[in-house]
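Field reference: sequence -> structure
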Amino acid sequence: MTTVDAGGTLAVLEARGVSVAFGGVLALAGVDIRVEARQIVGLMGPNGAGKTTLFNVVSGLLRPSDGEVLMSGTDVTRASPQRRARRGMARTFQRPELFGELTVREQLVLARRARHPARRYWAELTGVGSRPTREESAVVDQLLVWLDLQDVGDAEANTLPLGTARLVEVGRALATGPSIVLLDEPSSGLDDRETELLGVALARARAEEDVALLLVEHDVEFVLGLADTVSVLDFGKMIASGTPDAIRADPDVQNAYLGRSVEPSGGSR
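Structure field:
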């Protein structure tokens, strides 16, 4: 089934009426979310609101009790994470998962090579030290600059501090040439400078590589300063969805964050 909005725009990723029950507990109740091409969508909510559960559904790690997930109009509700990846989905996790003995550059080259499903992935893993192609080198060099990782390009991943490792994982996701990236707490563990670099890199990826982004974040100002639209979950239900300015002013959102208003930052988006 193919679905478009009233203006004829096809969503890169769409969840429609998604519900998830664990035993007698309803973790998600009829949740909708939509990400269009070259759009950054933020997903916020208190702890336990259902954000990670929704991410697991749209990435294929968890099958919903009800509802459907579509990528570019194709129903992928029952598709594996691998099939979704071949359709252009990439994902990061709350805890960076890097190959410890590979260098930063090798991590990115390997991710670029993983775009080609006909290639044997584990053979590439053991042979990642082979000479990169011109295209691979160009993509990796660009990502290293975007994320300010040039100085650690030849460092092994197991020597990196958490913040740097997280930036490498984001770079690895972007290296696959995705149409959409799911980012799970990407700024967690980053200092102010690293957070700023991350925001610049994600904005560039959207603008220059036609990448759509869906990110879960607890850093409210990071989300509101970067996203085009923001959706807010609370107790498994979507309580608000709209522009950052609309989300700031929404009383239900303020109540979900313990009654505290999200004050305007005065910065640009």
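Note: The longest strand covers residues 11-22.
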